[in-house]
Amino acid sequence: MTGWFEKTRASVVFKIVRSSVLLGLAFVGLGVFVAQPSCTRLPPSSKRQIPAERLHRHVSMLAERFSPRSCEDHVNLSHCAAYIASQFRNAGGRVEMQEYEVRNRIYRNVVVSFGPVSAPRIVVGAHYDTFGATPGADDNASGVAGLIELAYLLGDNAALGKRVDLVAFTLEEPPYFRTDDMGSARYARALHERNVDVEAMVCLEMIGYFSDEKKSQEFPTALLGLLYPDTGNYIAVIGSPGDRKLIKQVKVSMRGASDLPVYSMCVPKSFPGVDYSDHLSFWEQGCTAVLVTDTAFYRNTAYHAAMDIPTRLDYDRMANVVLGVYEAVVRLAD
Length: 334
Known about the structure:
By secondary structure, the protein is of the alpha/beta class. The protein folds into two domains: about 1-35; about 40-330, Zn peptidases (Aminopeptidase), CATH 3.40.630. It has eight helices and eight strands. Strand 3, helix 4 and strand 4 (about 165-170) form a beta-alpha-beta unit. The longest helix has about 35 residues, at about 1-35. The termini are far apart.
């Protein structure tokens, strides 16, 4: 009887250990797939710098002088579009306005292009409208400021092998979010209808808020807390399994551009929060697209609030984000 008991106990222990090992391996495999851990970082193609005060100036212009800029604030949106277009022209790119009508009002996407006119295209976009009457410094004057400075960097680069379009989108916020009247939806659909070859889209959505405090970073699920730091001092590159290659390309380029930590996340499009910006419009047209973000309301408590003001942002780290995106775009457009 004792022998039978010992054998049974050994069998049970073996099954528990085996299950634990398999569960552990499954979790490690899931972590590798989702977080794409890698020590790879490509060296920067140049030693360019972005003055932090210029980013601050762009954000202040949108979040203070032209605030509020919701869908109801048509005059301020028009001023924003004109300001962005003037900066794009100063950068030396080909500028155009994509105008469209919604409820008897004209709204504008502002586009600047670099590189060969008819070549396959890389698109980088950020929306300039806000939710309601909020200042929208991080959401999303930060992304637009990054787009403007990216234009100046690209304007100095004559070696692009592909066309790069930088687009400041209108009407990303409710009530137009997830509708056909989003600026990005209109733009992406127009490209699709003209059979334009869009090789990649990078969306800049809230790139200026960072925190060095523990537990300043939250997650949509507790599982992600086991894969990522709980200190919100990094930038994230997010996409779906179909965007896995692009996620890695953007991540390794950004990691090599500065010492700013860069993490990536590869999850299904149905995952909470993963499609909450203009890259959604490109996914809907079958394009490969990724989101570059400080993770929005999972970190920034001023999301869609009156306290989303310019003084809360970290412009030095924001400059590193833009330099990283520049490196990624140059390599994608090579």
